[in-house]
Amino acid sequence: MSIRLSLNPVHCLQAAAVVGVLAGMTLPAHADNWRGWNVHPQGYPNSVALDSFVKEVTENTDGRIKAKIFHNGVLGDQPDAIEQTRSGALNFANFNMGPMGPIVPETDVLSLPFLFKDIDAMHKVMDGEIGQRFADALEKKNLVALSWFDSGARSVYNTKRPINEPEDMQGLKVRVMNNDLYVEMIDALGGNATPMAYGEVYQSLKTGVLDGAENNFPSYESSGHDEIAKYYSETEHLILPECLCIAKRSWDKLSDQDQEIVRQAAVDAATLQRKLWAEGSKKSREDVLAAGAKINEVDKPAFQAKMEPIYAAFVKKHPDLEPLLNDIRNAQ
Ligand code: BDP
């Protein structure tokens, strides 16, 4: 077979020009442009830690990975971002284990109320062999968890009244994260749970669509919810870890050397985040108090008793997860 080339002089000149330009410049090595998701605003402990992760990854890979983090949830709400990271459309993110439950059932164990006795116990569990089991479960769903962040303890707050006893929750419309377990939890207390995206809560509190929500002090403050829902009652019903996760598709493309760099950057980010968290949550508590929040302690055993049936229902639904639950209890 013969191939006939028609040589158009204009095309030849254009091609020569392109080759000339390419030859004259030093082409950069192929760079992976990574986009990361974060729900929190700039300056929040997690955001500062993610900024440092981005810097360390970009510098230590000599620009082979160019990472950029988008704060403030501008790339979508958390359930969406989880899906996007699973598919590789986003490359990394800081996720809370609460909205992870519908995708990775093992992580629902972490959403059982009053599971960890305190934050140190949570760290001990997540930094050890049990944390690795969660990472393995996440990896099966295409998320590579490289380190665990803190998110303190979550408590209930509302616009109406201080909550001392579970009975005080009666009839309150309380926003929860996207997970059926939280609906069961608030309903068990006599409230009306409303799953809703984090970014919509402020407006809903303002217009009275919601009476309250639940979160830790830094989020209560940074979201501005403290300006509207003045009663913060220290139920401390959830101590949820968060991950710094990489899309498995992005992770698998890396050389061993770059995987090591990214892993180290994630571990360093978690060390920084935990330090900033410890300082930041104390400061947020003081700030919201100074701004007029009314903080009270609650009758915790009464809340624990009301939520106990959630455990039995959970084990009935997920008998396979009972050993994991027991191991977490025994490890504390
Ligand atoms: C914050 C978590 C964040 C959640 C948010 C929420 O850090 O990941 O999206 O709570 O309540 O504490 O949705």
From TrEMBL:
<protein>
    <submittedName>
        <fullName>Solute-binding protein Csal_2479</fullName>
    </submittedName>
</protein>
<dbReference type="GO" id="GO:0030246">
    <property type="term" value="F:carbohydrate binding"/>
</dbReference>
<keyword id="KW-0732">Signal</keyword>
<dbReference type="GO" id="GO:0030288">
    <property type="term" value="C:outer membrane-bounded periplasmic space"/>
</dbReference>
<dbReference type="GO" id="GO:0055085">
    <property type="term" value="P:transmembrane transport"/>
</dbReference>
<dbReference type="InterPro" id="IPR018389">
    <property type="entry name" value="DctP_fam"/>
</dbReference>
<feature type="signal peptide">
    <location>
        <begin position="1"/>
        <end position="31"/>
    </location>
</feature>
<dbReference type="InterPro" id="IPR004682">
    <property type="entry name" value="TRAP_DctP"/>
</dbReference>
<dbReference type="InterPro" id="IPR038404">
    <property type="entry name" value="TRAP_DctP_sf"/>
</dbReference>
<dbReference type="Pfam" id="PF03480">
    <property type="entry name" value="DctP"/>
</dbReference>
